[in-house]
Amino acid sequence: MLNVPRYDFNWQLSYGTSLKLPAGTRMHFEFRYDNSVNNKYNPDPNRWVYQGFQSWEEMMAPNLGFILDRDADVGSLMAIKN
What we know:
little secondary structure; elongated
């Protein structure tokens, strides 16, 4: 859905993309970061990076927006089904 191979911290942008998904689609989000010595912007590859809201912490969070058919059953859209 989204791939940013040459991410630059200084961009601080939002990324927009759109998908038309069939009924019953499930989405799984996975984020990967280069915390290695190969990342020239990594100040300390030996330090564990935690999620947080400061720029020195990992700030990634999936924010989703939906456009729905006006006749959609909104109450059932986020229901968890096994």
